[in-house]
User: Which sequence fits this backbone?
């Protein structure tokens, strides 16, 4: 038997094509809104720090000078050592001053002898005047000689005091305890010409830190300055600016282990620089700080209800600083913010929400923290809680693991 294959006719093909063409048409399905990570601002009481560069300064400084002219006989200390008050430092050859004391002593003895003669002469003439043996003029003359002799004694006593004082200056003692420098003059040199500088002593227990404040930054501290109503200064509360526990950072980045306080605010503003000189006082019992060190003074400031947001979400254009938020309708909106000068690691503190100008962020609002390039104002998105996502990613057991990260201290 043979099978006969018949080709379909054109009408049949056309009919099949029409049947297929009458099926359901393809429809465009828009993509789902992009996922955007959001995060609420952290609002809490925070202590931040303002840093100002300064230099340490000894709390007391003395220049040791030769007060009498003579040759330097000996140097009685080791350079750079700590000396105590009253310790012998230098000796100037004393021979000429010892001779001066002896001369002044002899002159005083002679003046006292002359006074005894003058006093005896006056006494006798006064007695003789009673019997008419001498005239009244002789009595007055004897009295004048006695007064002159008394004056000569006083002059001789003063000269002896000067001579003894000059002799005492040949031994130079430390007027205070502190760290001494080296000797500026070698043994055997003539000193005392134009008040020769021999060495210096500085006391660094405690020690000052000198800084320059701008006018605006200095205003809270000016309130603590002494005035007629309060000659000693201060407002009498623990919150005074002068009572803040200041911190110190050394040039190598190490933190000094003692806190200090403001001790002095100058009485005038430098009109050239617009700054005022301020001194902070730090204990230095172990002598870790030396005079003239470059340091950074950290001034604490407590901010109640500080608004903290990630620093990288703050954008800026001609309209100022702003962040992107996701509103209740899951639309991206723009919000103007005012960053402060304070940062804590990667976190920036901004000015709190102002209901009048709608500047700032409220606690319940959601900040866009990822895909900032894709997010644009008016875009509908799918918000994802960044904190919850980070917790899920970090925990092998899934959601619910507590985040124990700590905020870094202020720089």
Assistant:
């Amino acid at each position: 038997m043979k099978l006969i294959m018949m080709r379909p006719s054109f009408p049949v093909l056309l009919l099949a094509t029409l049947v297929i063409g009458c099926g359901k048409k393809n429809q465009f399905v828009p993509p789902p809104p992009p996922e955007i990570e959001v995060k609420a601002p952290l609002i809490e009481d925070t202590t931040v720090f303002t840093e100002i560069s300064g230099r340490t300064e000894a709390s007391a400084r003395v220049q040791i000078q030769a007060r009498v002219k003579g040759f330097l006989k000996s140097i009685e200390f080791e350079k750079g050592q700590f000396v105590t008050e009253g310790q012998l430092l230098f000796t100037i050859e004393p021979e000429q001053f010892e001779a001066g004391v002896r001369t002044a002593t002899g002159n005083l003895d002679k003046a006292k002898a002359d006074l005894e003669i003058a006093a005896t002469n006056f006494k006798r003439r006064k007695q003789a005047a009673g019997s008419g043996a001498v005239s009244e003029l002789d009595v007055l003359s004897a009295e004048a000689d006695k007064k002159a002799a008394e004056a000569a004694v006083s002059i001789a006593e003063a000269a002896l005091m000067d001579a003894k004082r000059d002799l005492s200056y040949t031994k130079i003692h430390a007027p205070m305890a502190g760290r001494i420098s080296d000797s500026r003059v070698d043994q055997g040199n003539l000193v005392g010409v134009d008040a020769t500088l021999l060495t210096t002593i500085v006391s660094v227990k405690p020690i000052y830190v000198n800084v320059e404040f701008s006018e605006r930054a200095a205003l809270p501290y000016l309130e603590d300055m002494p005035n007629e109503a309060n000659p000693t200064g201060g407002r009498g509360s623990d919150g005074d600016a002068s009572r803040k526990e200041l911190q110190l950072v050394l040039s190598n980045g190490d933190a000094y282990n003692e806190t200090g306080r403001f001790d002095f605010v100058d009485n005038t503003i430098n009109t050239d620089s617009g700054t005022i000189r301020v001194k902070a006082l730090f204990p230095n019992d172990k002598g870790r700080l030396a005079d003239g060190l470059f340091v950074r003074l950290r001034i604490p400031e407590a901010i109640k209800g500080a608004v903290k947001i990630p620093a990288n979400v703050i954008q800026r254009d001609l309209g100022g600083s702003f962040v992107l938020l996701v509103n209740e309708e899951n639309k991206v909106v723009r919000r103007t913010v005012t960053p402060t000068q304070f940062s804590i690691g990667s976190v920036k503190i901004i000015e709190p929400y102002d209901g009048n100008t709608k500047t700032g962020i409220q606690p319940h609002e959601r900040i866009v923290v990822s895909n900032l390039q894709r997010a644009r104002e008016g875009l509908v998105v799918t918000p994802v809680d960044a904190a919850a996502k980070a917790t899920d990613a970090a925990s092998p057991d899934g959601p619910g693991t507590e985040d124990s990260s700590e905020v870094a201290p202020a720089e």
